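Working notes for the structural subgroup meeting. M.R. asked for a predicted model of this chain before we commit to crystallization trials. I am recording the input and output together here so anyone reviewing the notebook later can reproduce the run.

Input as submitted:
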Amino acid sequence: MAEVAIRDLGVGDVDALLALYEHLNAGDARPSPEAVKAVFAHPGLCHFGLFVGDVLTASCNLAVIPNLTRGGRSYGVIENVVTHVDHRGQGYGQAVIRHAIEQAWAAGAYKVVLTTSRKDPAVWAFYERCGFDSGDKRAFVIRRPATA
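Returned structure, recorded in token form:
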């Protein structure tokens, strides 16, 4: 059985990460090299990858955001949660999310927020199994209008 490990991702992992993102949002435009460098250099933003052997199998990112409420304690936002379609249901997604939550607590965050655009109740149940409470807050989203 292959070894499973979770680690921080860096610029050198971008090809594997973008390939994994095809299982999240198929057909997304590839970011420029400059955008990749800027994302990985952004303070407070971490990308975590779960590897089975040397294959990136699951990932998420965590932004830890400074805050002036709650006694000045930061909060975390987890986004871009994805597990390769061939490896779902094996606990890899939960493991990488738990890792991100632990990192948020280590950074002093008082809460972690996660949103999903998926409408599948099984996906919602997955996040609840990870410890998230769908009834605690309500999320609202606005997207930038397409430019002509």
